[in-house]
């Protein structure tokens, strides 16, 4: 399988997991967090608890409820977001990573953040789209040297799902 097909499979798997999580709500209330537990406040904390609706047991093999270890440091993480799924790996010698973040901010706020961050940090905006499919979904694709990053947003009942896909 070529590199782009492998990475496409990773993206589709993460997106489908997010869609199924939203669509398959059982309607039951989740139990309260144990006393003394702290909500995740830093999106870079890979081994902290996640306040997302996903539990680690519900994730596919190799997918973590954190920013994956191989995620490139030069790609900004949306401030205050919580990672719910992440995976990294190497395909044909090129490091790739994907992460799904949750934030209570609007898709427009997330889009504006990435447009400003990418522009101010030397990235070249390759493509940008707002209001995809008539909804508050947005996307930005940018490059910085050999690094490529794509950010997608999708409205969620609690805010916004942010998907970051990298090749660097």
Question: What is this structure's SSE topology?
Answer:
Layout: H1 3-23, E1 82-91, E2 94-103, H2 107-120, E3 124-132, E4 137-144, E5 147-156, E6 159-167
Antiparallel strand pairs: 1-2, 2-6, 3-4, 4-5, 5-6
Structural notes for this entry:
With 168 residues, the protein is of the alpha+beta class. It has a single domain (1-20, 71-168), classed as 3-Layer(aba) Sandwich (Protein Transport Mog1p, Chain A), CATH 3.40.1000. It has two helices and six strands. It has helices at 3-23, 107-120, and strands at 82-91, 94-103, 124-132, 137-144, 147-156, 159-167. The protein has a six-stranded antiparallel β-sheet, sandwiched between helices. A hairpin with a 2-residue loop joins β1 (82-91) and β2 (94-103). The longest helix is centred in the N-terminal third of the chain and has 21 residues, at 3-23.
Concise structural overview:
With 168 residues, the protein is of the alpha+beta class.
Looking at this protein, list some descriptive labels:
168 residues, alpha+beta, Protein Transport Mog1p, Chain A, six-stranded antiparallel beta sheet, 2 helices, 33% strand, globular
How large is the count of helical segments? 2
Would you identify the regions where 5 or more consecutive residues have pLDDT less than 50?
Answer: 15-56
Mean pLDDT score: 74
H/E topology pattern: HEEHEEEE
CATH fold-level topology: Protein Transport Mog1p, Chain A
Largest sheet: 6 strands, antiparallel
Q: Tell me the structural class.
A: alpha+beta
Approximately how much helix is present in the residues?
10-25%
Q: Choose one word for the global shape.
A: globular
Sequence of strands across the biggest β-sheet: 1-2-6-5-4-3
CATH architecture: 3-Layer(aba) Sandwich
Question: In total, how many beta strands?
Answer: 6
Number of domains: 1
> Roughly what fraction of the amino acids lie in strands?
25-35%
Q: Quote the distance from N terminus to C terminus.
A: 19 Å
Kindly provide the radius of gyration, computed on alpha-carbon positions and rounded to a whole number of angstroms: 16 Å
């Amino acid at each position: 399988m070529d590199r782009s097909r492998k990475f496409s499979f990773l993206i589709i798997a993460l997106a489908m997991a997010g869609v199924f999580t939203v669509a398959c709500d059982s309607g039951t209330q989740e139990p309260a967090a144990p006393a003394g537990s702290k909500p995740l406040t830093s999106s870079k904390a890979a081994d902290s608890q996640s306040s997302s609706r996903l539990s680690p047991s519900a994730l596919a093999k190799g997918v973590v409820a954190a920013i994956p270890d191989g995620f490139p440091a030069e790609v900004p993480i949306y401030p205050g977001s919580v990672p719910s799924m992440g995976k990294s790996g190497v395909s044909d010698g090129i490091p790739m990573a994907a992460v799904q973040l949750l934030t209570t901010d609007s898709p427009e706020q997330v889009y504006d953040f990435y447009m400003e961050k990418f522009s101010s940090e030397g990235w070249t905006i390759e493509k940008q789209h707002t209001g995809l499919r008539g909804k508050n979904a947005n996307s930005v694709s940018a490059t910085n040297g050999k690094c490529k990053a794509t950010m997608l947003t999708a409205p969620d009942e609690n805010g916004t799902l942010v998907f970051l896909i990298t090749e660097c």
